[in-house]
């Protein structure tokens, strides 16, 4: 019997993430997934103790040094042990970079030095609490679609301003995504710039990890820029069976592999993780969005290839058995494919727009039972809406919460 349609959960979030109809079948799906399925292994029963207790801190959550430090203080008091601080949102920097300009949000002027360094502040404050600090790095989102891109103040220009040919476009030759303009992952020069940007960050800052987001295309018709189209045409001439989907997944996979290689070279103990679409492919009988065919994000393949240390699937729905967005079943799918690497289960702080800590506790308990190596909650801004939301994690002596006792993060044996 077919599954029920996705319920109205998390209102706008659920609509955006799950309810969009997939834009057509991809003939390369079954063949491409076979290699990933073959690489699936059962979780290692000897995995060391410990768990990631993380929180995403977006660039919209802070504007001052004191404000950022206070968020990290609250996370530490909640016995969280990892913060994911966003320091690259749209081809800009919330840290000192010679590759990209200072973010406009910090001063109102793109490229203007704000007089403080958010990433270094986060590292210093996190170290004070014994927490891991991961640099949260939007990879392919390039600039807000609604804003004109103008010259930056100072010598460092925005990469898309300097190289407009790096823009991802659809088959009409335009960028029609309503949220962002995107870099094309099929242009080697654009990928090289992103890798060089990450390299400099890893060389200059003592981060515990590089955390990737927006590591995908904006849709199934991207990017039809001349460089990518010519490369696809040449590859298809060699292999007529090649589909556009398989080709574009390979471009995104190459971006991930390049970032893993530079992380391993520059800061080998740093962990490469990625926030990925919460639905890899639709559950049986379901018609939801999916990372694999809609956005060419073959996240499970990264685990199988060993080019990702940890996936953080953004499963922003409740545990609802039988539903197309059931948090537990979606997490199970990522766990089955983890290939000896880590899965840190992502979750939204709100359920249907409301705070329901019993639901959060249920997800935390399920993640532990399923063998996930931790959880990450989206996001600090929702926890900050009421002080008790942070303290619920610890609870009281008479009613201890799920984070009542401190915990270390789990080790990654392949990083040692």
Notes on the structure:
- By secondary structure, the chain is α/β, with parallel strands linked by helices.
- The chain has one domain (11-20, 51-143, 186-222, 234-415): TIM Barrel (Alpha-Beta Barrel), CATH 3.20.20.
- Helices cover 35% and strands 13% of the residues.
- Strands 1-2-3-6-7-8-9-10 form an eight-stranded parallel β-barrel, surrounded by six helices.
- Strand 8 (310-314), helix 12 and strand 9 (342-348) form a beta-alpha-beta unit.
- Helix 12 (327-336) runs parallel beside helix 13 (357-370).
- The longest helix has 23 residues, at 244-266.
- It starts with 10 loop residues before the first helix and ends in a 25-residue tail after the last helix.
- The relative contact order is 0.17.
Topology:
Blueprint: H1 11-18, H2 29-38, E1 52-57, H3 65-77, E2 82-88, H4 104-107, H5 118-128, E3 132-138, E4 141-144, H6 159-162, E5 180-182, H7 188-204, E6 209-213, H8 226-238, H9 244-266, E7 271-277, H10 291-294, H11 299-305, E8 310-314, H12 327-336, E9 342-348, H13 357-370, E10 374-378, H14 380-383, H15 387-391
Parallel strand pairs: 1-2, 1-10, 2-3, 3-6, 6-7, 7-8, 8-9, 9-10
Antiparallel strand pairs: 4-5
Helix pairs in contact: 3-5, 7-9, 12-13
């Amino acid at each position: 019997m077919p599954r029920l349609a996705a319920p109205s959960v998390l209102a706008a979030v659920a609509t955006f993430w799950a309810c969009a109809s997939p834009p057509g079948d991809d003939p390369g799906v079954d063949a491409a997934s076979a290699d990933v399925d073959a690489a699936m292994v059962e979780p290692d029963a000897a995995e060391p103790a410990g768990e990631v207790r993380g929180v995403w801190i977006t660039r919209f959550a802070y504007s001052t040094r004191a404000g950022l430090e206070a968020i990290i203080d609250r996370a530490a008091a909640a016995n969280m042990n990892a913060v994911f601080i966003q320091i690259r949102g749209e081809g800009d920097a919330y840290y000192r970079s010679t590759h990209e300009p200072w973010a406009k949000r910090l001063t109102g002027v793109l490229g203007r030095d704000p007089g403080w360094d958010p990433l270094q502040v986060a590292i210093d404050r996190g170290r004070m609490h014994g927490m891991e600090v991961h640099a949260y790095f939007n990879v392919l989102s390039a600039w807000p679609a609604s804003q004109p891109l103008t010259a930056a103040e100072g010598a460092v220009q925005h990469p898309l301003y300097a190289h407009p040919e790096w823009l991802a476009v659809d088959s009409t030759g335009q960028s029609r995504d309503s949220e962002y303009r995107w870099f094309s992952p099929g242009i080697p020069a654009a990928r090289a710039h992103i890798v060089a940007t990450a390299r400099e960050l890893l060389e200059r800052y003592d981060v515990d990890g590089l955390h990737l987001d927006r590591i995908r295309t904006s849709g199934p018709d991207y990017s039809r820029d001349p460089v990518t189209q010519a490369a696809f045409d040449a590859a298809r001439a060699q292999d007529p069976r090649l589909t556009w989907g398989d080709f574009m997944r390979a471009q995104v996979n190459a971006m991930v592999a390049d970032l893993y290689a530079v992380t391993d070279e520059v800061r080998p103990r740093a962990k490469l993780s990625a926030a990925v679409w919460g639905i890899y492919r639709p559950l049986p009988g379901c018609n939801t969005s999916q990372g694999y065919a809609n956005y060419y994000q073959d996240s499970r393949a990264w685990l199988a290839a060993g080019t990702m240390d940890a996936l953080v699937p953004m499963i922003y729905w409740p545990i609802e058995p039988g539903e197309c967005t059931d948090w537990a079943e979606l997490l199970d799918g990522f766990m089955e494919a983890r290939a000896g690497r880590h899965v840190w289960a992502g979750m939204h702080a709100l359920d249907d727009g409301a705070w329901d800590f019993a639901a959060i506790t249920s997800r935390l308990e399920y993640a532990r039972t399923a063998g996930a190596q931790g959880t990450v909650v989206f996001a600090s801004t929702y926890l900050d809406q009421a002080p008790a939301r942070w303290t619920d994690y610890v609870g009281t002596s008479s009613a201890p919460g799920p984070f009542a006792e401190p915990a270390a993060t789990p080790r990654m044996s392949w990083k040692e």
